[in-house]
Amino acid sequence: MMTGLMTGLDPLYWMLMLPAIGLALLASLLTKGTFARYSKVASSTRITGAQAAERLLRYGGAHDVRIERAQGFLSDHYDPRVRVLRLSPEVFDAPSLSAIGVACHEAGHALQHAEKYAPLALRSALVPVVQFGSSLSQWILVAGFLLMGAGSKLGATLVMAGIAMIALAVVFALVTLPVEWNASARAKRLMVDCGIVSADEATASGRVLNAAFMTYVAAAVSGIATLLYWLLRSGLLGGRRDD
Q1: What is the DSSP letter of 77?
Q2: Residues 6+ apart with CB under 8 A from 211
């Protein structure tokens, strides 16, 4: 079993992960395709993504958020630690419906932060824990199985610790879903309320956000599949498997 685990040739792993990988690829293609489609459609107001985000933030009462240009394709994000909204060049400078949708979505996160939206606060609290655990969990699990094979009681403890780290990552992925959905819902509503786009244009921008949301769904499915795999391999679910 250990050879399969360490070389990535374990059939059980691929049986669980291939659907998740397929969903992730589909979500990525859908997001890029939808963004590209509506990046060619300018809004009637002709304002850029950065201008749209600034207007939405003012309308929502978040006056202390800076907007900066970031590097990298669709690298857009809101950093609650320093209250900065960073937009990629494709979003910051463009007057397209895609750019406006993404910019307003990220501004929606800033409004969540200003309103102390509970799921966002929980996700932010989990970030350092998940970052630490994601870099160590696989190594801890492999070490644990090797020690278990050698008859060491420490092995079972390490396996449990590794699985707990993966479980926290799954919690993070699941908490991310309502955070992202809520930010998009805010964006779709407020971009019309404050005159950034028309109702019809908001529908088109919303398609970009809906496609992007599928990437978070795919991440959650992948995390659940990974957790299920290790639960099965450890024997915590379904009995010990050594095939």
Answers
A1: E
A2: 27, 30, 31, 33, 34, 35
Pairwise CA distance, residues 25 & 28, whole Å: 5
Residues 93-119 have pLDDT tens digits of 999 999 999 999 999 999 999 999 999
Q: What is the pTM of this model?
A: 0.89
In the three-class reduction of DSSP (H, G, I as helix; E, B as strand; rest coil), residue 67 is classed as strand
Burial code (b: 16+ CB inside 10 Å, e: under 16) for 180-217 equals bbbbbebbbebbbebebbeeebbebbbbbbbbbbbbbb
DSSP codes, 84-126: EEEE-HHHHS--BHHHHHHHHHHHHHHHHHHTT-HHHHHHHHH
Active site residue: 54, 68, 90, 106, which one?
106
3-state secondary structure 149-166: HCCCCHHHHHHHHHHHHH
Q: Would residue 54 show up in a list of annotated catalytic residues for this protein? A: no
Assess contact for 186 and 180: CB atoms under 8 A. no
Write the single-letter amino acid at 39.
Answer: S
